[in-house]
Amino acid sequence: MADAFQATDGTGGFSAVSVSVIIGLMLTSGLMLISFMIRAGQVSRSYTGQMAAVQIAEAGISKALHCLNVSDCGPCGGTCGPAYTGETDVDFGSGKFSIAIEGVGTTRTVRVTGVDAAGNRRTVSTLVTNIPPTDNPDFSFALQAGIDGIYMENNSAVTGSVYSNGNVTCQGTNAFVDGDAYVTLPSGKVENCTVNFHAHADNILQSMVKGDAYYKTSIAGSTVSGTTFADSSTPETKDLPNIDLDFWRTSAEAGGTLTGNYAPADNEIIGPKKIVGDFTLNNNVDVTLTGPIWVTGKFTAKNGSSITLDSVFGTYGSAILADHQSDRANQGKIVLENGSNVTGSGNPKSHVMLISTNTSIDPTNPAILVSNTSSGAIFLAPDGIMRLNNNAGAKSMAARKLYLDQNAVVSYLESDMAGIKFSNSPGVSWSAVEGSWLETN
């Protein structure tokens, strides 16, 4: 093989032809490298220009949101609020952007073209909406209980239906359900209760049923005004309302964190807020809620206090979450004392949802204790017991276990509860729809 590189005259040196080939290859490689570097520089400059144009377009998105939300139309070309449809050739640094808003109603498309100083153009778009983020658990019953069921003392009353994955037991037939009663527990029972409509359980015992009785195993000591249906299927188990706890935690934290026990002053406005400690409304303190509250300790509303959701929430509700993520056996309780009150925005569909993640099922030390009339409140204790004291009231209650004292009343109005929505903010501000951002060219 070495001979192939020898000169043909036998002198042993490289031939002029071979040297020329090598030099040619070196020159070609060098030119190719230079050409690549030039092209790479051009691509880099082009990419940099395109990124600059995208950033200018994104500034236009921000201005569009600003102009949709303000009432001072001067900086927005003379038009703002929901009537704002965009602007053209708005100066931004050394570039420009043009905004076009398409559509009407609560959701619209904002399309912005950005142009940098070198003439690079990029267009981005996003959906915007004035519908606030929501968490919408289904409260379909006046009372809904988990596996530990429902207990009602005499003269307690429920207007609406009750649904329980455990037994429904009453102290006597002076406790009544002005609706249907469902027990999904196999071999479970409705016992000692007055049910003004229909009863559905494997066993119906010592009860007064003014409608029909659907049972699987037995019916004993009971009066049924309607028809009895033996060997009926056990009602289907239903989960308690599903709450997106992370949604409420994140939403509350967005308004900042207060560390230590907190007691607001009278007429204070609060929310959204995380409180690392107890949250206490002292006697006769009235506050306005402007966003969700996350309390890691206990929430207590004392005598004569009130918490009212800001009227700007309209048909939307919001939430107070009592949740200590690492000590649910002891923390995260809710206590509403006599004379305290919780109300929505003033719209019949607006309610404040009070959520406790405490795990106590001891009725003498409940996760939620309600001792007041709270016409605008909905209560949820998915892992604990909720107790409604004498003469207390609520709109809807769901818990692992429910306990109603004498004269406690739950008044469920289906028209107020159908399609209820709970939000971290009122539905008045325009914002970008998450995940809708798109670069179109």
Number of DSSP strand runs: 41
Percentage of residues assigned to helices: 10-25%
- Shape descriptor: elongated
What average pLDDT do the residues reach? Answer: 89
The rounded distance between the terminal residues' Cα atoms is: 57 Å
Task: Compute the CA-based radius of gyration.
Answer: 34 Å
* Coarse structural class: alpha/beta
The description of the largest β-sheet is: 24 strands, mixed
Beta-strand percentage range: 25-35%
> How many H/I helices?
3
Give structural notes.
This protein has 441 residues and is α/β, with parallel strands linked by helices. Among the domains are: 45-132 and 429-439; 135-140 and 238-423, no CATH class. It contains three helices and 41 strands. The strands form four sheets. It has a 24-stranded mixed beta sheet that branches. A seven-stranded parallel beta sheet has the order 20-17-14-11-8-38-36, with no helix packed on it. Strands 1, 2, 3, 4, 40 and 41 form a six-stranded antiparallel beta sheet that branches. Strand 2 and strand 3 form a beta hairpin. The two termini are 57 Å apart. The model is unreliable at 1-14 and 33-45 (pLDDT under 50).
